[in-house]
Amino acid sequence: MIEPAAIEILDGLDTLRAVIGLREIASLIERTARWVSPDTFRLLPLWFPEHARREFFYKNNWSEPQMNKSRTSGNSLHKFEGNVHANEALTLALGLRKKLRPNWSCCHIWGVDDASFQLSNVVVMDRRFFSCVSNMVLLPTPLKAFTDTIPEIKAMLRICARNLYSWQCDHESVKTINATLDKWADWDSYPGSWPRKPGEKLPLGVAPLTPAIKASVERRKAAIRRDLEHAGKYYPRDEVKAALDYWKIS
User: Fold this and answer.
1) For residue 118, what are the domain limits?
2) Residues of the chain with pLDDT under 70
3) Looking at residue 98, what is its pLDDT?
4) Mean model confidence pLDDT for the chain
5) Does some domain include residue 11?
6) pLDDT of residue 101
7) How many CA atoms lie within 13 A of 227 on its CB side?
């Protein structure tokens, strides 16, 4: 009896590229992505300077640790930030509410490129960039996998973002990444509605600055001022002030 040949499994990205081109993937993202308006970005570039990836959570106005009890060990562990406040920043800056955006995901644009997900993402562990709305785009959840794993898609998103907001992340870890963007040459794959130079045009899916978004900006600024003055002992005042200074937020 002849045994059937084993199925051949290649690298998943290579298999994907064999059936769908880079231009087609980029077109899906172009037509579905939602971007914060540059006007909103200028009003408030950073929404939650007190938070960053893996920083601890506190309750009762930053006066005591917020703990989670492990179901397996029964031990209490200090709860830490995943993507909660980045998600909230993007939602508010787009004029949305979380419950009204099912199956959409917040995608950070600048970060440490690591398809194996083994390296710490020090960019979003930095308060200056974690809740920065020019460092995020809202995507249908299935498309987020493309931005996590395909280098060319990451590069095109970064080119679009830096031209849309006239800003690019200057964290030490992305200097090499930024240098490669200047050498981008595959304009056939780059979406036609996305700007190729600063201020050229708006991509599809930009949420206009509305009175409701302006009100959210003012509420967030007021909350930051209030916390700087009145929050409890665990509030990271020095780090918050440094992040605000970086963005020249008074």
Assistant:
1) 21-246
2) 1-3, 5, 114-119
3) 79
4) 93
5) no
6) 87
7) 24
pLDDT of residue 133: 98
The number of domains in the chain is 1
3-state secondary structure of 147: helix
Provide the pLDDT for residue 99: 80
| Contacts for 21-25: CB closer than 8 Å, 24+ residues apart | 21/189, 22/150, 22/152, 22/153, 22/186, 22/189, 23/188, 23/189, 25/146, 25/150, 25/153
CB 210 within 8 A of CB 37: no
CA distance 29 to 37: 17
Q: Contact, 149 vs 13, CB < 8 A?
A: yes
- DSSP assignments along 165-229, one per residue: HT-----GGGHHHHHHHTT---TTTS-TTS-SSTTS-PPTTEEPP-HHHHHHHHHHHHHHHHHHH
Q: Are 152 and 181 in contact (CB under 8 A)?
A: no
In Å, the largest CA–CA distance within the chain is 80
Q: What is the pLDDT of residue 214?
A: 98
The pTM of this model reads 0.91
* Phi-psi region at 205: left, alpha or beta (left = phi > 0; alpha = psi -120 to 50): left
Cβ-in-10-Å burial (0-12, 13-18, 19+) of 154 comes to buried
DSSP state for residue 88 in the 8-state scheme: H
> How many other CB atoms are there within 10 angstroms of residue 221's CB atom?
15
Judge whether 102 lies within some domain: yes
Query: Residue 7: inside a domain, yes or no?
Result: no
Q: What pLDDT is stored for residue 165 in this prediction?
A: 98
Displacement of CA 121 from its chain's centroid (Å): 12
> Does 13 reside within a domain?
no
